[in-house]
Each structure stands twice: as C-alpha cells, then as structure tokens.
Amino acid sequence: MQHLVDGDPAANNGGWQWVAGTGTDAAPYFRVFNPVLQSSKFDPNGSYIRHFVPELQHVPAEFIHEPWKMPFVLQKDIDCIIGKDYPVPIVDHSITRERVLNAYKLRGE
Predict the structure, then answer these.
(1) Are 79 and 58 in contact (CB under 8 A)?
(2) How far apart are CA 104 and CA 82, in angstroms?
(3) How far apart are CA 51 and CA 68, in angstroms?
C-alpha cells in the first residue's frame, strides 16, 4: 500500500472483493474471477509471471499462463517439473466455476 500513489484501504479492499466476486455487491453472481484468463489477456507474454515467479522464467509463452499443460519432455528440458519445481493447480477452474454457480442457484441467488 505504501508504494501506491492512489492507495486507499476501502477502495482497494472493495475493488479486490468485487473482482473476486466476494464483495457485498458481488453482482452478477455468475461473475467468477478467472486468473488464467486475466493473466493471458493483460500480460500475454507473461512478463509479470517471469519476473515474480522465477521457476517459470524459461517456460515458453504458449504455456506461461498454464504451465501444468507443458509436455513432460519440455518440463525436463527447461528444468521445471510441475508438481516438483512448481505446484500443480489446486482446483480445475471450469469444474469449480460450475460447482459454485450450481450452489448459488440452489440458494436462489
């Protein structure tokens, strides 16, 4: 926060909650944040990822947003084994998105 020119706790917290679909005005309910889509849309070459996640700095651009989809031979070649040097995904976004949307529908949201 100290490095932001326009940092404001209420605006920043509210903004992140809205983006994540968890805020008090998280409407429409079907808006589920997709980090892979956002990353590929706003950082297509993965510059941010390469800078802050050194394990992925040698991942080819086509896999930088989803490194777990790299062929194992390529993982070995660049010395980045998914599950060893970089974690496997915790959830499958498409499956999890459907689960949460179904849960919202059951609640009558």
Answers:
(1) yes
(2) 33
(3) 18
Q: What is the pLDDT of residues 15-47, one digit of tens each?
A: 777 777 676 665 566 777 788 999 999 999 999
Q: Phi, psi at residue 86, to the nearest 5°? A: -145, 135
Q: What share of the chain is helix, strand, coil (3-state, %, to 5)?
A: 50, 0, 45
Question: What is residue 91's DSSP assignment?
Answer: S
Helix segments in 5-81, DSSP class H: 9-20, 35-42, 47-52, 72-77
Phi, psi of 6 (to 5 degrees): -115, 30
Name every residue whose Cβ is closer than 8 Å to that of residue 6 and which is 6 or more positions away in sequence.
Answer: none
| DSSP summary character for residue 49 | H
Residue that has been written with the tokens 């983006």 in this structure: 19
Contact between 66 and 36 under an 8 Å Cβ cutoff? The reply is: yes
